[in-house]
Amino acid sequence: MGQAPSAAEKEVTLQHIQELYRKFANECPSGNLHLHEFKKIFGINQNSTAEESAYTENVFRSFDTNGDSMMDFMEYVAAVHLVLRGKLEDKLKWSFKVYDRDGNGCLDREEVRHVVKIIYAIKKHNDPSITGNIEDICDRIFHSVDKNNDSQISLEEFIEGAERDPWVMDQLKLDIQPCDWFIEQQEKNP
DSSP string of 136-169? Predict the structure, then answer.
């Protein structure tokens, strides 16, 4: 009681969506958000690591639901809504989609290794004291999550494993922080 609501708890109202559209139309006069503009939103620039850039490209691909290499306003609103107001299960489904690079509906060791490597590189970039062995982390994730031991993680195993084990959730967490950016954009003067 008495605490200010977090960005995730703030309601995205019709007024917010209208303001978001105005800004989207101003920033993206073509009516589409391209990858380079998306990277700018998340602070990816020439000083960013290759891992950060690749990670953002995977996130962009996951929001580009029709696969046309750009986000229209409806895809953009769906993305903002998921990030700000989405339920944990929806966010986990989205994370799975980001990680499933070949789109086959399962995560193999190479996909898990790739994403863990990217997440650790980003975490280490933000906090150099972070340590961890990528192979050990992957082994522990598979041991904890791959219940049928087929060397692949299905969507169901991914969701159950992340919800059951906080360590797994922390290892696989998409830590992109667009909520702060969205709120900042809402508070800027026109």
Answer: HHHHHHHHHH-TT-SSEEEHHHHHHHHHH-HHHH
